[in-house]
Sequence to fold (356 residues):
Amino acid sequence: MASLLDMDISGDTWVGALIGVLIGVAIAAAVVIVVRLVVGRARGRSAWLAALERRLRVPGTTLALLIALWAACAATAPSLEPWWPAAERVLQIVVVLTGAWILSIVVTFGMERLMQYDGQRDGTSFEARRRRTQLTVLNRLAVVLIGVLAVGVVLFSFPEVRAVGTSILASAGVVSIVAGLAAQSTLGNLIAGIQVAFTDSIRVGDVVVIEGEWGTIGEINLSYVVVYIWDERRLILPCTYFTTNPVETWTRRSDKILGTVYMDLDWRVPVDAVRAKFEEIIDESPLWDRRSANVLVTGSEGGYVSLRFKISAANSDDQWDLRCLVREKIMTWLQQEHPEALPVTRIALEERTDAR
Fold:
């Protein structure tokens, strides 16, 4: 009779627990719906709020339901069961990780908004590229730090891990030496990545020549830098490369750049006519920024004269296209109008007289 009574009481208790859980989940769902309605009305007037709501929709709903489930179970019959401490620990871990997920989304969204606003105001100058580089590195550092802290909170929620942590801290001197030697390369790249970002040696969008390759700095991560080569290849270099090797950059303080075209021509080349044709070509081209242009004879060795065409442009892309244009136009004009100026090889033949 007593066992039957216990079964009835236990059954009633679990029914009450189930009702409590359902009520908690219903409250969480109602809160999520209300928040979505409020945000839905506001996001019509604010694009950034709509974007943030879309990113937080899944993790925010997950966190609300987890907290509701945790609170309902802790206040009802499941909290009296022997398996509840283990289940509560699992819920605690999932809540901490979900909270870290939400925090990283908010931080990343904030950094992206800052970069977007800065890009709309001034997206091409070297100062804008410097700020974009620093914000990108700061964002990645913040996300990594949030992840490390979340994992640390999860691990130190276990008493066994706290005991191990105390032992490690007691012997921190030996551990730090061993860890430093084992992770020397990794830590060196991490420190170099921060140094590259905040010493302004290179920035995202800088035009550089590295290892004989012309390209653009596309990504600066905590441990490596990705250079976008002009032919769509990717050159990946550790951050320490940029703190220990010289790097040729074309956009350090300005995008403006000078370019040169060299031609080896015959001694009969009409320099004044070539100069006039060169000025005509660049005057008609929108690629020339009208800062600098001239034609000089820079060499006269080996049976040729060397002409140097100097031209300026607003950026490296325009400068490259303008150099190609000048080279092609001058070459075609010489072929049609002054073929005698094209380079030739002269051979002098002397008649041998027989000494006999």
User: Anything to note?
Assistant: The CA atoms of residues 195 and 243 lie 8 Å apart. DSSP finds ten helices and eight strands in the chain.
